[in-house]
Specification:
Oligomer: single chain
Largest sheet: 6 strands, parallel
Shape: globular
Radius of gyration: 22 Å
Number of domains: 2
Order of helices and strands: EHEHEHHHEHHEHEHEHEEEHEHHHEE
Structural class: alpha/beta
Number of helices: 14
Length: 453
């Protein structure tokens, strides 16, 4: 399979993880742009460079792409980009003409602009530092009271008219671009088109837009960073069945942080989106063990506690993979300690516990499906699979759930990681010679590099 992927941006989970997972199957020939062409926290993608790279792309079977990257310069720039609708339409139309010459199946994702409920402008326009929570509340109540004629949120008075107008213009521009993509889908340009909806609440302009796109025939998925990996999963033709089981089966209707669907619905949506059969009674190819939460999902960084796993972990009798979603962004230490103690590698298809529930599930499922299909076809690379798992354990468990809680700014964490490296090296039977970096110069994510490749 010749696969081209144009990621959302240059973060390790968006760029490196694509490369690492696809290496699990020796039959996948990956084409991915040079990392310096992609956007970052404060850097837009080199759209002209990406156009030139894509123009020279040899014949491939499948193209998985983030439309935000070619339209705005990335996911974060999609919220900041000052360009007009006309300029962006011209840009994406040029890309469309190039893509039409490739005669490949095109699997695409475009974001519905999020509304974060905070006053942090790290990933938003400058005015978010002062008016972010007000804009969120205005959006929430505007949707909530939409059926009440004439009712307006009093918070509107706290937002300067020019700022609110700018915010609305940006939203409307992005929404109109998404409608263009939907028309292209109806014309047969995309094999699959997904609109991603992240950082959701029950109400808001983003929820309204999602409902509108759905009524127009669009497909909306809760999530964001993991969706290109989910599209890779979807593009792989492979019969595979999965049975989800939960550590807290009485609480599967609870909703995860930053999402608007129950954890059960999130799990089943991610599996079905990846083209995987969901079964409940028969023996599955793989069991998906979900370490879910009671009452509320924890948020380690924000010091929002949750009841950690207190049961007795027993590995499933079938091949298995594990989604550790008791916390948003970071492992459940009680659960992982038992998992390591009773670890069974021969039937293991992956672990994930990074960021939102959808992020963890989508990337985990992609890894498991690639491994399952490669084993079936005799093209499996076990060392590559071990590398993916090594990074997930060291990032999601060692760093996010433990070391990140002990530091206040980017620093040398190598000595602190060593005990965790020793543990993971032992259970995976894998030599570890890692270095750790902060790719966006913040604590939110680290980059784990090693000498395996």
């Amino acid at each position: 399979m010749k696969l081209c992927v144009i990621p959302i941006d240059n973060r390790p989970v968006c760029y490196n993880l694509v490369k690492e997972i696809t290496k699990i199957d020796n039959s996948i020939e990956l084409y991915i742009p040079p990392r310096n062409l992609l956007g970052g926290l404060k850097k837009d993608a080199d759209i002209v460079g990406l156009y030139s790279w894509l123009n020279q792309l040899p014949k491939v079977d499948t193209i998985v792409m983030s439309m935000d990257t070619i339209a705005y310069g990335g996911l974060i720039p999609s919220r900041r980009c000052p360009d007009s609708f006309e300029d962006i339409y011209s840009r994406i139309h040029d890309f469309k003409e190039v893509l039409e010459t490739k005669n490949a199946k095109i699997y695409a994702v475009s974001s519905i602009m999020r509304i974060s409920n905070n006053n942090c402008n790290e990933e938003e326009k400058e005015y978010w530092s002062k008016y972010g929570k007000y804009i969120f509340e205005y959006s929430y109540t505007k949707h909530q009271y939409a059926s009440s004629l004439g009712l307006e949120s009093p918070v509107k008075r706290l937002i300067p008219p020019n700022i609110l107008a700018d915010y609305k213009r940006t939203r409307m521009r992005n929404f109109k671009i998404n409608q263009v993509y939907l028309q292209w889908k109806k014309e047969g340009f995309f094999d699959t088109l997904i609109f991603s909806k992240d950082d959701c609440a029950e109400y808001g302009f983003n929820v309204m837009e999602a409902e509108h796109l759905t009524r127009m025939g669009g497909k909306v998925i809760t999530g964001a960073d993991e969706i290109p990996l989910s599209l890779i999963s979807k593009s792989i033709e492979c019969n595979m069945s999965v049975k989800p089981i939960y550590t807290e089966p009485d609480y599967v209707q609870l909703i995860s942080n930053y999402e608007d669907v129950s954890i059960k619905e999130c799990v089943e949506n991610q599996l079905k989106f990846a083209g995987i059969g969901v079964i409940t009674d028969e023996t599955p190819d793989i069991t998906l063990l979900v370490n879910n939460f009671k009452k509320n999902q924890g948020e380690i960084v924000m010091k929002e506690d949750t009841e950690q796993f207190s049961g007795e972990y027993t590995p499933p009798e079938t091949p298995y993979m594990i989604a550790d979603v008791r916390n948003a962004n970071g492992a459940d230490n009680n659960f992982v300690n038992q998992l390591i103690e009773k670890f069974r590698y021969n039937d293991f298809y992956g672990y994930s516990g990074w960021n939102t529930s959808a992020n963890s599930l989508g990337s985990l499922i992609c890894c498991a499906k690639v491994k399952f299909n490669a084993q079936k076809n005799g093209t499996y690379n076990d060392t590559a699979f071990k590398k993916v798992q090594m990074i997930r354990f060291l990032d999601d468990w060692a760093y996010q759930a433990n070391i990140r809680q002990q530091i206040t700014e980017p620093c040398n964490i190598q000595p602190m990681m060593k005990p965790y490296e020793d543990t993971i090296s032992k259970i995976l039977n894998l030599p570890i010679r890692n270095e750790y970096f902060y790719p966006w110069n913040r604590l939110f994510e680290i980059e784990v590099t090693d000498e395996l490749y």
